[in-house]
Prior knowledge:
Blueprint: E1 41-44, H1 46-64, H2 68-76, H3 82-88, H4 92-101, E2 118-120, E3 127-129, E4 133-135, E5 141-143, H5 144-154, H6 176-180, H7 187-208, E6 212-214, E7 223-226, E8 233-235, E9 241-243, H8 257-267, H9 271-280, E10 281-283, E11 290-292, E12 299-301, E13 310-312, H10 333-341, H11 346-376, H12 378-396, H13 400-429, H14 437-458, H15 462-467, H16 469-498, H17 500-506
Antiparallel strand pairs: 1-7, 2-3, 4-5, 6-7, 8-9, 10-11, 12-13
Amino acid sequence: MEEENWDDSEDDGNWVDSEIMADIDDVSSGAPLKDKIIDSYKCMTPNQITQKKISIEKEIEDCMNCNNSEARIILMHNRWDKDQVKNNYINNEQKQNLRQKYGITPSQPIPEKPINCEIECAVCMEDFASELIQFSLCGHGMCGDCWNSYLTESAKNRNVIDLRCSYGSCQYALTIPRLQNMANLNQYILQLLKNRVSKFELQSFVSARNDLVSCLANGCDNIIQVYDSLLKEVTCDCGYRFCVHCDLGTSHRPCLCKIASDWVLKNNSESENIQWILAKTKKCPKCRSPIEKNQGCNHMTCRNPSCANEFCWLCLGDWSKHGSATGGFYKCNIYEEKKKSGDLNEDEKAKENAKNELERYTFYFERYDNHQKAIKQMQASIDFAEMRMGELMKKFDWDPSSTSFLREAANTVIEARRLLAWTYPIGYYMPSNYIQRDLFHQYQKDLEIYTEKLHALADLPVEDVIKQKQQIIDYRRATQTYCDHLMKGIETEINHSAFGDMDVEMN
């Protein structure tokens, strides 16, 4: 296996600006970094998005000379694209066909409503007096119980926003206003239906729009409007950060969506268990029973009572032929000679490959996992910084602006760890022959060192924090600059040159 390590060698790569490679300790204080104004997206509440939806509906109402319910039906069937709606309605004949297709007008003659007679309900087949049958505006009816059951079941489904008459081939749209005009329907069910239609209509509107994405945090109803199609991630007002291009449910910059998805899938896959078995167990050469080596000695005895074969763990040969001449209990010269000459059998080759791959994966996963665990404790880090800020204000009469550097340092540590965590999947999937692989690992190592040092500085006792305030400020600024440049370098250079086809696919 090619050993994974931190390579300190130099490289001519230029995907990170050379100015940030200066020793971070030498960065002198200066003007604060310019705050980046986030104007590429906006966090909005469901009510704000609803107003946008209503505005589009109103435009179609005026343009198509229809009511609000009809405008909603037309828009839903055109993925809420008002321009597409206008293009689809070219002439009166086409307009009429589409109105029937969408269920705005009945597609067949409306039957006359019978008066003062018994009618069979089309669903339960029971006979009812005509006045007990509830007729929709298309002229078809069912008994009250069947209508209420139909509406109750419909409310459980997202397709309730496109509810149709259930009579035969009738496709007449049953909108809330039309149902409210029907007599004696259960008002509780109608209200439930109305709430569900309102909810799913909004979801339909959001999912149909390329510039809208719902916050993926549990319990958050906010919706993000994205103005820049190249935007990688957003941070909701609830504080949750996530990628707008995939459904992974978290932010993974600078890692490509495909790589992040493959990595998460790999971490959750049973394939790692199989790989562990391949790397850590062997089959008895006599009875083929799987055996795990749990001691350091190479002398194995099969636990199968009917076998009890004694063999060498390394070369799988008869143990009676082993001794001091072959290397004793902890070494096997026979195996080493076979390995050197490439004379291992297929099982041994597969086992060696599995072992190497497992060790390589473990190297990257442990570092990724350590940073992810640190990120989960981010609120504790912020709370600790706030507590120390309060202590400084109380003990030394500092104003809030004079203590904010501690919060900024904690936030920078969090951002650096988030960046570092997702560089490990990149390193794992990076081609072994990639020319800037060693340079990538060097920058990764540097950021690890800078992050740990900043963390240590921010956690100094209060008395030492006072003495080293300027150093903490300078070090935080330099670390943040390093993160920004490394993020940019990976996204603009590494992702293109190392994962070219994948990068094009994801964009």
